[in-house]
Amino acid sequence: MRASKRLLILGGTTEAAALARRVVGDMAGRLDVVTSLAGRTEPPPALAGTVRSGGFGGADGLLEFLEAERIDLVVDATHPFAAVISAHAREACARCGVERLMVVRPPWRPEPGDRWTEVTDGRAAAALLPTVARRTFLTVGAHSLSPFAGLADVWFLVRVMTAPETPLPLTRCDVVVERPPFTVEHEQDLMAAHRVDALVAKQSGGAAGAAKLTAARRLGLPVVLIARPEPEPGETVATVDQAMAWLSDRV
User: Fold this and answer.
1) What are 86-117's pLDDT values in tens digits?
2) Which CATH architecture has domain 5-106+230-248?
3) 12, 47, 126, 208: which one has the fewest Cβ atoms less than 10 Å from its Cβ?
4) CA-to-CA dists, residue 143 to 137, 154, 160, 162, 169, angstroms
């Protein structure tokens, strides 16, 4: 009989990194942790436990991994917009009977002074944008730029975590390569220096990305906020503490 159970964290977020640290620190000998990253960016520093990088090859590939690695529990702590891997996790866990928990951070809520317009997806954001802006801070990630490719009358400031290897699919843009966290002051100075007149962001939620919204509020800028996809069915918590309690009940 194994001395400890095995946990797979589907990660890439601050919550996933914090959960791995907590498990390694508080459940050593009872729960071995493996964190899986998509491999699109460099891994965060000092990520606790074992780390694997790269895709699984769909639900079938994830199922094979769960069985081969004898995973007992899965915590899906991916980004709220990582809908594909979350769907694969639901299917794979259901097929092999592995318990699954989702950590879903609460969405941002508007505050007095915010000028938000919420849209369904990137194409809706691109359709709206020419009516509200000419110089836009686009913070949707390098893999979500294609809906904005046809907007020749809008200049974009695009933030990415790693320098792009090929030109971005935008007619007019500048690129800034930065890694979070960002302060409100940094975001405000960045927008002011580039004479930005609107912000486009995904409704990711969480404290780490909220600074740009506060900066836009202070500058009086409109924000086009792309709605997150509906989460997969299954048990859900909002915090790392709640995830730890769920794990404690099972080990």
Assistant:
1) 999 999 999 999 999 999 999 999 999 999 99
2) 3-Layer(aba) Sandwich (3.40)
3) 208
4) 16, 19, 10, 12, 10
